[in-house]
């Protein structure tokens, strides 16, 4: 097959590209330039959008012996990921930009461009497994539970999965680094990227204030009693305990957690930990990563709402426009805007965006 290897400049994507070449595929390495000014997003090795990363990707491609190009995806990334991040927070939700990047950039814009150029698919260094079944390709968790990225890949539809290749899904991370050293790849010991790549210094609240303002608003309890003030409701998230700007005596002597964010009134509502309990989740914009479950029929499975969270046993129903989930046990601190992923064992059934909870 003719494949595009999306090379971030890290060890995982480099080894994934090398394995694809070794398997006999015709491979071209591509680094995605996600900002017209890379230093605006992040410098150093913390993100995946830097000048240093593009140089590392080029060196890896040279070692592997494949052609290398840089694709300018700055406009698509800004419109589909950065602006979405801002608008979601402005509306009081908590988005996951990695989900949107995989959906809008790495497996939509890149895959579309690759197919337009005559390629069969895209290779990445994500940790997930693809299995061929009589009903088509389906995605499963990676062998390495600590690195499994099926949660952030669950936004891929069946057409995108058909063109997605994850060569590392059957390998643990330590073995990938050992293989990189054996192959002579400069990035063998490069630290993994973390945090949000377009937020300088990892200061999400400060980054949001710079763009959305810092209008002072009230922090209140569930009865409406004012306990303190904040500088931008959107800088808080459901379940947050630290940095609330209130004193414990003012809160009644017990720790308080963010229960609700009301952007229209710029108000943050806080309360007890027990008030965070969620047993029902409704997700909208469902995406199915394989066979679509029967409509209006109860199914058993597992729900996961954080990239590295534990899956919770549940009963779910898909209505055609939503996924409705009843958890066997309560979950604490879930916010609208987070990703909801449904699993059948290790198989990814599909995903949705959390719209509301009970």
UniProtKB/TrEMBL annotation:
All residue ranges annotated as the tRNA-specific 2-thiouridylase MnmA-like C-terminal domain in the record: 279-354
GO molecular function: ATP binding; sulfurtransferase activity; tRNA binding
Residue ranges annotated for the tRNA-specific 2-thiouridylase MnmA-like central domain, each copy included: 207-272
Record's signal peptide: none
Sorted UniProt keywords: ATP-binding, Cytoplasm, Disulfide bond, Nucleotide-binding, RNA-binding, Transferase, tRNA processing, tRNA-binding
GO process annotations (BP): tRNA wobble position uridine thiolation
Keyword ATP-binding: yes
Pfam family for this entry, one: tRNA_Me_trans
NCBIfam families listed in its UniProt record: PRK00143.1 (NF001138), trmU (TIGR00420)
This protein's name: Unannotated protein
Native species: freshwater metagenome
């Amino acid at each position: 097959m003719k494949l595009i290897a999306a090379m971030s400049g890290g060890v995982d994507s480099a080894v994934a590209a090398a394995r694809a070449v070794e398997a006999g595929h015709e491979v071209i390495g591509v680094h995605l330039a996600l900002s017209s000014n890379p230093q605006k997003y992040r410098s150093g090795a913390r993100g995946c959008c830097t000048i240093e990363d593009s140089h590392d990707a080029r060196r890896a491609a040279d070692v592997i012996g494949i052609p290398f190009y840089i694709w300018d995806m700055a406009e698509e990334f800004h419109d589909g990921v950065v602006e979405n991040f801002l608008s979601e927070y402005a509306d009081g939700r908590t988005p996951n930009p990695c989900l949107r990047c995989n959906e809008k950039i790495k497996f939509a814009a890149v895959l579309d461009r690759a197919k337009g150029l005559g390629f069969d698919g895209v290779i990445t260094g994500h940790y997930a497994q693809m299995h061929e079944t009589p009903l088509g390709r389906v995605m499963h968790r990676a062998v390495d539970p600590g690195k499994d990225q099926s949660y952030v890949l669950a936004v891929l539809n069946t057409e995108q999965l058909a063109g997605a290749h994850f060569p590392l899904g059957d390998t643990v991370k330590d073995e990938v680094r050992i293989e990189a050293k054996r192959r002579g790849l400069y990035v063998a010991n490069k630290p993994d990227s973390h945090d949000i790549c377009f937020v300088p210094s990892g200061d999400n609240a400060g980054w949001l204030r710079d763009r959305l303002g810092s209008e002072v608003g009230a922090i209140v309890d569930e009865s409406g009693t004012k306990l303190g003030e904040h500088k931008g409701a959107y800088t808080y998230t459901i379940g947050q305990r630290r940095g609330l700007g209130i004193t414990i005596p003012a809160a009644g002597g017990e720790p308080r957690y963010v229960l609700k964010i009301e952007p229209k009134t710029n108000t943050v509502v806080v309360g007890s930990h027990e008030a965070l309990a969620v047993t029902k989740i409704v997700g909208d914009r469902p995406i199915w990563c394989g066979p679509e479950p029967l409509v209006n029929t109860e199914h058993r499975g597992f729900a996961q709402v954080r990239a590295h969270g534990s899956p919770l046993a549940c009963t779910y129903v898909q209505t055609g426009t939503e996924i409705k989930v009843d958890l066997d046990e309560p979950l604490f601190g879930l916010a609208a805007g987070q990703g909801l992923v449904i699993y059948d064992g290790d198989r990814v059934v599909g995903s949705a965006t959390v719209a509301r909870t009970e």
